[in-house]
Amino acid sequence: MEIAILTRGPGLYSTQSLFKACLAKGHEPVLVDYARCSLALGAEGAQIYYQDRKFAIPDGVIPRIGATFTQEGSALIRHFEWLKVPTTLMSRSLVQARDKLHSLQRLSKRGIDVPVTVMAEPQADLGLVEDQVGGYPCIVKALESTHGLGVRLVHNRQELQQCLMGYSRESPFFVQEFIAESKGEDVRVLVVDGQVVGAMKRVAQEGEFRSNLHQGGRAYNARLTPLGEAVAIRAAKALGLGVAGVDILESNRGPLVLEINASPGLEGIEKVTGQDISGHIVTYLERLVNAALEEE
After folding, report:
1. Strand-pair partners of 5
2. Which pLDDT score is estimated for 168?
3. Residue 31 backbone phi and psi in degrees, to 5
4. d(CA 36, CA 272)
5. CA distance 15 to 7
6. If pLDDT is split at 50, 70 and 90, which confidence band does 42 have?
7. CB of 2 within 8 A of CB of 15?
8. Pairing of strands 2-6, 28-32
9. 259: closest CA among 164, 189, 180?
10. Confidence (pTM)
11. Rounded Cα–Cα distance for residues 244 and 240 (Å)
């Protein structure tokens, strides 16, 4: 079958890994720069144009939507949904996952533990915020952040006030409790089609609290406990994600879901675990396509 991989980075590891996985399974992958797609609505219904030509509709889609293109990417995915083209990432799930507060709200509502989190305005009562997150140190996050960027560890009110000077009056922010017992470590879990297909422990470099590989963190193959595995699967399901990178912190009260990524990078976890994550994603798409054909 013909599979469209929606990506802005054709040479990126994740894109190439998915491309090769499609070929290995006998499919015809096509790399599509989603920023060059135009969407049309009219008497003929939904149509997609790519590089000024009408786009030949594929059998299935694997979206790799960057954080700065969430709105455009979700609109394109909705067009594919309208055309009844199976996709490994639903538009609604992408939007939910990218809205950090919304995603935490959905997780908490479904009984999945998350770090104590406060969303506040720059003019908020800092004393109340401090009390809610258990004092200092605490984590301050921008509402939109990736790879650990826009995330700071503050140790007192003065540092918090200085941090907030970078936000405009209209820019709310997150303050989260600092999980000291995690010791700068977390676990990235890859969930595909309701199953854990890989997990890696990420360890922050000395003097750094962020364990992201983009911040110099190191990664090791991780063996999940049954509880950790169940939490990751439930978290992906709560956001309707067929493919998800679930970040988990170990705390004294059990595993906490820190964040969920709707387009997780594959390089680190495939190299560390030796697992063919891309192959699992293509197999998931195959199942979706077969299910759609059976419904016709």
Report:
1. 31, 62
2. 54
3. -85, 125
4. 34
5. 7
6. confident
7. no
8. parallel
9. 189
10. 0.89
11. 9
Backbone angles phi, psi at 140, to 5 degrees: -115, 130
Nearest-angstrom CA–CA distance, 246 and 262:
9
Place of tokens 């990235």: 188
Largest distance between two CA atoms of the chain: 62
Q: How far apart are CA 144 and CA 151, in angstroms?
A: 10
CATH number for 117-178 (one of 1.10.10.10, 2.60.40.2140, 3.30.1490.20, 3.40.50.1240): it is 3.30.1490.20
The CATH H-level (homologous superfamily) assignment of domain 96-113+181-262 is ATP-grasp fold, B domain (3.30.470.20)
Q: For the chain, how many residues are written?
A: 296
What is the Cβ-side half-sphere exposure of residue 247, based on CA atoms within 13 angstroms? Answer: 26
SS3 readout for 141-184:
EECCCCCCCCEEEECCHHHHHHHHCCCCCCCCEEEEECCHHHCC
**Cα 162 vs. chain centroid, distance in angstroms?**
29
Q: Is the pLDDT of residue 268 over 70?
A: yes
